[in-house]
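P.,

For your records, the input lines for the assembly:
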Amino acid sequence: MPSSVQSVADRAGVSVSTVSRALRGVPGIAESTRKRVQEAAEELGYVASLSASRLATGRTHTVAVVVPLLSKWFFAEVIAAAGRVLSRAGYDVLLTELSTPELRNAFFAAPRLQGRSDGALVLALQLTAEELAALEAQGQAVALVGSERAGASSVCVEDRAGGRAATRHLINLGHERIAFLGIQEAPGSTLGGVPPAERLLGYRDALADAGISPDPGLEFGVGNTVDAGSAAMATALTMAEPPTAVVAASDELAFGALATLRGAGLQVPGDFSVVGYDNHELAGSVGLTTMDHGVAEQGRLAAEALIATLDGAPAAVERLQPNLVVRGSTAPPRRLRAVSP
Amino acid sequence: MPSSVQSVADRAGVSVSTVSRALRGVPGIAESTRKRVQEAAEELGYVASLSASRLATGRTHTVAVVVPLLSKWFFAEVIAAAGRVLSRAGYDVLLTELSTPELRNAFFAAPRLQGRSDGALVLALQLTAEELAALEAQGQAVALVGSERAGASSVCVEDRAGGRAATRHLINLGHERIAFLGIQEAPGSTLGGVPPAERLLGYRDALADAGISPDPGLEFGVGNTVDAGSAAMATALTMAEPPTAVVAASDELAFGALATLRGAGLQVPGDFSVVGYDNHELAGSVGLTTMDHGVAEQGRLAAEALIATLDGAPAAVERLQPNLVVRGSTAPPRRLRAVSP
DNA sequence: CCGAAGATTGCAAGCGCTTGCGAAAGATGA
DNA sequence: TCATCTTTCGCAAGCGCTTGCAATCTTCGG
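C-alpha cells returned:
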C-alpha cells in the first residue's frame, strides 16, 4: 500500500498541510522546507492519492473524449492528436465510444461523466441542445469537433467550400457529368456521427457556378463505408448517361468507388476521375486526389480549446480551410483528350 | 453542485450508511427501505461521487489501455472491441498512447497508473520484465495483447503458423521466388510496438517444408508503413532475379507493395501475387489476399481476461489461430500459365 | 529596543462515501 | 411468556488530501 502524506510529513518533520503545499508548489513555503519535503517524498516513493485530491478539490484533471466510432481512421487520428496535447497538459483521457443509438441515448440519459471528467471533447456527434445541456449540467466544459453549438467551443471545417473546391477541380479539368457520393446516416440512427450535408451543398454550388444544371440522379447518399461507395459507384455506372467523374464525401467512399472502377476495367484517371475527402492515411498510396482538412490539427486545436475553456477562457470557434491535394486520380475526361484523334 | 448521500438520507428518513448500502444493493437492507431510498435518490437526481467512493474503497473501476500508436487501424480496432466489453462490465477506459520512446520511458519511470486504474491492457508493447513489474507495483492487474509474459494474462496469435500458411498458399500456387516484407523497428526505438519475428520464421518454415532454399536477399525488414512497403517492393523489382510473389507482415506493407506494382504496370495477380497480414478494414476493397487474425476478437478476449483477473482469476493465455482469406491478389505465377502459348 | 508587517507553518474542518460493530426490533422456539 | 436468533439500521471512524485561518517566528524601521 502506497505511503500517505502523513508518512512524508513525519519523515520531513513537518505537518501534512506543509507537505501538501510543498509538493504542489503552492507559494508560502520556504524553499528549504520544500526541498526537504521533496526529498522525503522521493525516498518514500510517495505518490499523492488521486482519488483523495480529487475528492478534496473537486477537479479530476481528466477529459472525456466522446466519439461515435473509434475504428474509423478519422476519429482515431483526431483522438491521437488531441490526446497528445491533453496529456502534455496533465489531463487524463477517458475514452467513450457511442457506436449505437442505444449507447448514445444511455450515455446522455444518465450523468455518466459527472465526477469522472472536467470536460468533454465531442467528436462529430451532432449534439442536440438537450444533450449539450446534459453535459454542462454535469459540470463539463465541452469542446466540439465537426459541429457548432452556441456556448461551446468548437473547431470545424469549411466543408461547403471544400465540396465546392473538389467539384470545381473536376469542372476545371473539363468534366460536366459529375456524381456526388454523399454520406447519409441510416434512417433511425441517432448516431449523427457525420458532418452535415455541407459538402453536398458545396458540390451544388460549384455546378451552379459553372452553369451546369444539377442532376439529382447523380447525387448518392449512402453509409460511410468502402462497400457503400463501391455499390453506389456501380449504380452510377449503370446510368443511361453515366458520369465521367465523382466527388466522394469521404476517402473511404472514394476507395470503394476506385475498387468498382478498377473491377469494371475502367482506367483512373483515364476513363474516370475521382476525388475524395479526408486525405486518409492510405489516400497517398492509392494515388487518390482528395481534400485535406487537417485531421490531426482538428484534434489538436479542439484539445487546446477545451483546455482554454477549463482555464476559464470564453468559448471560441475555430474554422479550418480544407485544401485540395492533387494526386493521380483526376484528369480531363477522355472526350476532351480524344478531340484530335 | 450535486446532492450528497446526506441529502438523500434526510429525504428518505434514514442514515447515510443505509443510503449507501441501499443504492449499491448491499444485502441486509429491507426491500421496502431500499425502494424508499431509491425513490429519494431519484427525486434528487442523486449521483454518488466517484472520487469519494474511490477514495473509500480504493477501487477505481477504470482500466488503462496502453497502446503504441492509436492511429493504426489495428490498434483502434482492438481498443474499440476491448472498450465495448470493458464499459459493459462497468469499467471506464483510460487511454494512454506511448508513441515515442521518451513517452514510454517516462510512463514506466513514474507510477502513472497508481490510483488511476485497477488494471492495464497493454497492446503490442513488448514489455520488459521491469516494465511489467512496475505496473504490478502500482497495483495494476495486467493483460497483454500480442505478447506473452510470465504471470500476466495475454492473448496472442500463432503468428509463426500464420506466416507459414500465407507462404504455403503461394507455394501451392506454384511460386518459388517469394519475398517477405517484414516489420522492423527503427534502431534505437524502444517502442516495440511490433510483433516479434514470428511471421518471418513461419515464412522460412514454409520454404523449408517445400525444399526451397531461402534467399536472404528476399527478406526485407522495414518500418510498418505503406510507404515502407512501397519502397521495399520497388527494391525487390530491381533484383536480378526478382520474386514473383510477396508475403507482407502487415496489410499496410501489402498496400504499399500493391501501389508500387500497379505503378510499375504489373498486373496483380497476373504478374505478381501478394498476400498481406491483418485483414485490414480496406483489404477487401483492394482485393487483398491476407491472413485474418481476429483483430476485434483479440481486443474482446483481452478485455475479458483482464476483467477475470480483476475478479481474482489466475492469469491465463489465449492463443488465436490466424486464417487465410483468399481474395484477388494471388494466383499462379505467369511462368506456369504461359506453358501452353 | 519595541511594535508591526511579513513570511512560514500547523490546526482542524471538511470533501462524500464505505464499513465494522453494536443496538434496536421483530421473529422463533420451548 | 421469556430467552435467543435474525434481520435491519445507525454510529462513528476512517479513506488521504486541501485550505481558510490562526499561531509562531523573522525582519525592520524608528
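Two observations worth noting. The mean pLDDT of chain B is 92. Chain B touches chain A through 50 residues (CB under 8 Å).

Regards
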